[in-house]
Amino acid sequence: NAGVMQNPRHLVRRRGQEARLRCSPMKGHSHVYWYRQLPEEGLKFMVYLQKENIIDESGMPKERFSAEFPKEGPSILRIQQVVRGDSAAYFCASSPVASSTDTQYFGPGTRLTVL
Amino acid sequence: GQQLNQSPQSMFIQEGEDVSMNCTSSSIFNTWLWYKQEPGEGPVLLIALYKAGELTSNGRLTAQFGITRKDSFLNISASIPSDVGIYFCAGQLRMNRDDKIIFGKGTRLHILP
């Protein structure tokens, strides 16, 4: 059973370009979470999605950031018109249908560098 | 908003020593989690705690869920070189479809040769 997969692992963009980060959850997992980690910091929640639904986007900036988890295919975190402050590691986690004893498993992350 | 204070920020220890780190919160959680992160990787779950007062072990690691539900600690006994990494505590509330995890800032463990 493959773990959570993220690609690309490293992404370099110039200011003003778009960044697309992909996350394939573990097999059988229908919940996806995106987190951002700045250097020397813990992970900060951005958005929680189920298939075709955004459940909680309270941690996501209102502008330039969007996320989707379509019926088929990976979850996508999209950052438009990137700025230097968007440079960070972005982690995706997945969990099965919500239960009291299951928790989230993390992917290896995408490290975004904005030049 | 909810905040977690994790201490210490860094630890420099000799191989074979025991390690203790803790986490306190301004509000209660019903799940406490401890993760380890190595360079260039995502966090890996070490121990999950679901009940106040629960004490759980995973090999040389032991973690406890505080009675007040606002704190947790992690102990590592007889440290070895592969224990090096960043240890994150995290709290999760798990109610009303709110499953997001709140992370501490991490304890960076260094082992001196």
How many helical elements of chain B? 0
Shape of chain B: globular
Residue ranges of chain B: pLDDT <50 for 5 or more in a row? none
As a percent range, the share of helical residues of chain B equals: under 10%
> What is the rounded distance between the termini of chain B?
41 Å
> Largest contact between protein chains?
A-B, 30 and 27 residues
Explain what you see.
The complex is a heterodimer of chains A (115) and B (113). With 115 residues, chain A is mainly β. Chain A is 0% helix and 49% strand. In chain A, strands 2, 4, 5, 6, 9, 10 and 11 form a seven-stranded mixed β-sheet that branches. The radius of gyration of chain A is 13 Å and the shape is globular. Chain B is mostly beta strands and 113 residues long. Chain B has strands at residues 4-7, 10-14, 19-25, 31-37, 44-49, 55-58, 61-65, 71-76, 85-92, 101-103, 107-112. In chain B, strands 2, 4, 5, 9, 10 and 11 form a six-stranded mixed β-sheet that branches. In chain B, strands 1-3-8-7-6 form a five-stranded antiparallel β-sheet, with no helix packed on it. In chain B, strand 6 (55-58) and strand 7 (61-65) form a beta hairpin. The interface between A and B is medium-sized, with 30 and 27 residues.
Keywords:
heterodimer; A: 115 residues; mainly beta; seven-stranded mixed sheet; four-stranded antiparallel sheet; 11 strands; B: 113 residues; six-stranded mixed sheet; five-stranded antiparallel sheet; globular
Q: What is the topological layout?
A:
The complex is a heterodimer of chains A (115) and B (113).
Chain A: E1 5-7, E2 10-13, E3 19-24, E4 31-37, E5 43-50, E6 53-56, E7 65-68, E8 75-79, E9 88-95, E10 105-106, E11 110-114
Parallel strand pairs in A: 2-11
Antiparallel strand pairs in A: 1-3, 3-8, 4-5, 4-9, 5-6, 7-8, 9-10, 9-11
Chain B: E1 4-7, E2 10-14, E3 19-25, E4 31-37, E5 44-49, E6 55-58, E7 61-65, E8 71-76, E9 85-92, E10 101-103, E11 107-112
Parallel strand pairs in B: 2-11
Antiparallel strand pairs in B: 1-3, 3-8, 4-5, 4-9, 6-7, 7-8, 9-10, 9-11
